[in-house]
Amino acid sequence: MTLKPRHKRAAIVVGGLALLGVAAALVLNAFNSNLVFFYTPTQVAAKEAPQARTFRVGGLVQAGSVVRDGVTVNFLVTDTVKAMPVRYQGVLPDLFKEGKGVVAQGQLNAEGIFVAREVLAKHDENYMPPEAADALQRAAKAQKEAGNSMAPGAQP
After folding, report:
1. 3-52 pLDDT, tens per residue?
2. Could you give the CA distance from residue 89 to residue 111 in angstroms, rounded to a whole number?
3. Could you say which of 5, 8, 82, 98 would form a disulfide bridge with 41 (CB–CB 3.0 to 4.6 Å)?
4. First and final CA of the chain: distance in angstroms?
């Protein structure tokens, strides 16, 4: 049985499309498994963050919250609205300080503690991680709106 040239071309096109579809599915699957989203402590408290997946959390290191136990460091990350506990084992960046911007990457454990695998700190006097700066701006805006809604007729 021989195929007509028109049928051969159609079979090649269908086969090519099938291969392209499989390749796209593999690429999208790999891309999806490597995506790491950023959440603020407020979003984590609202359970918007994934429970069994790696994500980033950022904000400011709450003053007075850093507790070192050998190579384990516990601290709070706050967006000025909510704070969440973070545990990290390892050497922190030299610029990690209380009251400064930080972004941590890791997962929530069963106790609700964010176990960080990586901690990023600011690298100069004026820099703050963009995600952390945005989170702080959103938190300040939400606090301002909540303050305005609680006092009707109040002057802005």
Report:
1. 788 999 999 999 999 999 999 999 999 888 788 899 989 999 999 988 88
2. 17
3. 82
4. 83
